[in-house]
Amino acid sequence: MPYILKIMNTREVIKLYDKYVMNTYTRVPISMVKGKGTKLVDLEQNQYLDFFPGWGVSILGHCPPKVVSHIKDQVRKLIHVPNNYYNHLQARLARMLVKISRMKGKVFFCNSGAEANEAAFKLARLYGKGNRYVIVTMNNSFHGRTLACISATGQKKYKKGFEPLVPGFIHVEFNDIRSLKKSLRENPVAVMLELIQGEGGINVAEYDYVMELQRICKQHDILTIVDEVQTGMGRTGKWFAFQHFPGLEPDIITIAKGVAGGLPMGAMIARNEIADCFKPGMHASTFGGG
Length: 290
Description:
Blueprint: H1 10-20, E1 32-36, E2 39-42, E3 47-49, H2 65-77, H3 88-101, E4 105-110, H4 113-127, E5 135-138, H5 147-152, E6 169-172, H6 177-182, E7 190-193, E8 196-197, E9 203-204, H7 207-219, E10 223-227, E11 252-255, E12 266-271, H8 272-275
Parallel strand pairs: 5-6, 5-7, 7-10, 10-11
Antiparallel strand pairs: 1-2, 2-3, 4-12, 8-9, 11-12
């Protein structure tokens, strides 16, 4: 006999949340039950026009027909493939991501932007071979909620209460080359930045600054990591924000949010010679890429 969910109202849902769900989000008192395109419907059948695509996740709208069709088709065949087997769909997606990024590189799949950034941190440290491990990030940046990611994030409000933080991250002023040059005394292995700071207030990187940053990094064998979690997958008019900066060639980019059309997925793309620092067993994600 099929299990039938009891029909609830929003007030009852909120009571369940208060009793059983950790209070880590500020929520609007609405419980959504279905959506299509830009429309959402709540438990009481009120309809909404959604101008907030889930922090950039639902970039194709709610329940895009092609995505829904492919999901239904796949879950009838196979839901999870562990990473000790080959997955032809994952291989094809990796090829597609490398192609649209125009990077001669390889992909690591995971579940979120924070995981993608964590992978970038580990890969950068491997590249430093134990001699260099410091990663330079920007003030007002945001790179995720894990302990390493809040350590990388250049905003104090996300760090409060979680000290001691992960060592090896220093912060410099965004769009300020002199501030970046001062960080060279720490012998960094990488510089990480968002080309459009989202959480920091929609701050856009200046072209001349980015080009000089890249020149300095190349001169000192420092990796350039671009966090494309919020700006990637077409949200700026190109596949990735770095493609608006002619001549910019990141060593590593991280993506997530809309990459899977509403499902949880993250990815890191790294140039081949850097990607090859990873060997079997050095990094993993149980659900990474499906």
